[in-house]
Write a structure and sequence with these properties.
Layout: H1 13-30, E1 38-39, E2 43-46, E3 51-57, E4 65-68, E5 74-77, E6 88-93, E7 97-102, E8 111-117, E9 123-132, E10 139-142, E11 147-148, E12 152-162, E13 167-172, E14 175-177, E15 180-185, E16 191-200, E17 209-216, E18 219-227, E19 230-242, E20 247-248, E21 253-262, E22 267-272, E23 282-284, E24 287-290, E25 299-306, E26 311-318, E27 320-321, H2 335-372, H3 381-387
Parallel strand pairs: 2-9, 11-19, 20-27
Antiparallel strand pairs: 1-3, 3-7, 4-5, 4-8, 6-7, 8-9, 10-12, 12-16, 13-14, 13-17, 15-16, 17-18, 19-21, 21-24, 22-25, 23-24, 25-26
């Protein structure tokens, strides 16, 4: 019986099986097979989600397919799972495919998985599981909460706990800015990314949103936002409340100074450049009122506003005209009306000329006809003249003779 249970070398059967297994394993580790018909794919998966590994055989001759973990422990042998990890589940098993899913993936599951086909020699294909870890919510901080116009500010954005390292972009409104980025790898193979951006601000930047945008393959739409608060000196404008148009002698003048800024101007004052304000002028807050104007009040009146950032001003030049200035000006002529009148007159003249021409032409013919009446039957010229209509029948008429 003992000889029946031993191999040809006299070894026990279980030792022969172990030796054969070691030889097969050693061959699988050292032999690289070219043109093999076993294939698989690398897998990228977000931590906590599911990964699927597919071992595919193009032409299988009933060889056994199995899947090994990075420690070369058998996960599935055909459709049997020797590994006691219920997160691995069989999705499909056939002669041409072994497909296995891994749920709730963690960083410890990352590594190289082996698809193995028991042929002679054995074939292997490798699937790398890459675990992606999204960063936490980015945090944006500023060097100061409030900045004055013309000064420089600095913002810092941090995205921590990611794998691989995230990238950070800066946006001020629609303008992209360039920051300085540093990457730090932590003990647990995670990454912390910090980016800093510096820029000078203007008053137009007040209230402007600045976004720290984080890009990572495991996350979308990660950003942190900070609205800028910028202090700036006043902006001043003088508005004429009264009068409208020319300022004449005897009129009243009412000016209003409109001033804004951040912070709001704490002081608004009126001055007259190079001269004193008229003694009876009344200043009420931002209003300047002068009654009964005369030419001695001519000059430049300035409204000055100030806050903690600075001061600014606007000028109004007063010119007082004579009391009747602007009156009696010739009324504006309506050129269209004038043109119409001229056209009518020319048309009337043309019609009159036509009528007169026809009249003279008709009466000219009648004159010659009348002059010839009575001359046709006369025996001589003297008789023709006497008989002609309009001729002189008086026998007493004197006649002149030329000798």
């Amino acid at each position: 019986m003992a000889s029946t249970a031993s191999g040809s070398l006299g070894l026990p059967l279980f030792l022969v099986v172990i030796l054969m297994s070691c030889l097969v394993k050693g061959a699988a580790e050292t032999i690289t097979v070219e043109g093999q018909n076993l294939a698989t794919d690398n897998v990228s998966v977000v931590e906590g989600e599911m990964a699927t590994i597919s071992c595919r055989v193009k032409n299988n001759d009933d060889s056994v397919i199995q899947l090994l973990n990075p420690n070369r422990q058998t996960i599935y042998f055909r459709d049997v799972r020797p590994l006691k990890d219920s997160r691995f589940q069989l999705v499909n098993f056939s002669d041409n495919e072994l497909r296995v899913s891994l749920s709730n993936v963690s960083l410890s599951d990352e590594g190289r998985y082996v698809c193995q086909l028991y042929t002679d020699p054995p074939q292997e294909a490798y699937a790398d599981i890459i675990v992606l870890v999204p960063p936490g919510s980015p945090i944006i901080e500023s060097r100061e909460d409030v900045v004055s116009e013309g000064n420089e500010t600095e913002l810092t954005c941090t995205a921590s706990g990611s794998k691989p390292a995230a990238s950070i972009r800066w946006m001020k409104g629609d303008e992209e800015m360039t920051g300085e980025t540093t990457v730090e790898e932590t003990y647990d193979r995670m990454f912390t990314v910090t980016s800093r951006v510096r820029f000078s601000v203007t008053k137009e930047d007040d209230g402007m949103p600045v976004d720290c945008v984080v890009d990572h393959p495991a996350a979308n739409d990660l950003l942190a936002q900070r609205n800028l608060e910028v202090l700036y000196k006043p902006e001043v404008k003088i508005v004429v409340t009264y009068p409208e148009g020319l300022t004449r002698e005897g009129d009243n003048l009412d000016l209003t100074c409109i001033a804004g800024g951040k912070p709001h101007p704490h002081e608004i004052s009126w001055v007259r450049v190079d001269e004193d304000v008229p003694p009876h002028a009344v200043v009420t807050g931002s209003d300047l009122y002068i009654e009964n104007l005369n030419k001695s009040f001519n000059g430049t009146y300035r409204c000055v506003a100030s806050n903690t950032i600075g001061e600014a001003y606007d000028d109004y030049i007063l010119h007082v005209y004579d009391s009747r200035a602007g009156e009696g000006a010739p009324p504006k002529l309506d050129h269209a009306v004038i043109g119409g009148v001229v056209a009518v007159v020319m048309f009337a003249i043309l019609c009159a000329l036509i009528v007169l021409g026809r009249y003279f032409a008709r009466h000219k013919g009648t004159y010659f006809t009348h002059e010839a009446k009575g001359a046709d039957d006369a025996a001589d010229a003297d008789t023709a003249i006497i008989n002609a209509e309009g001729g002189h029948n008086n026998t007493d008429e004197k006649k002149e003779y030329y000798i």
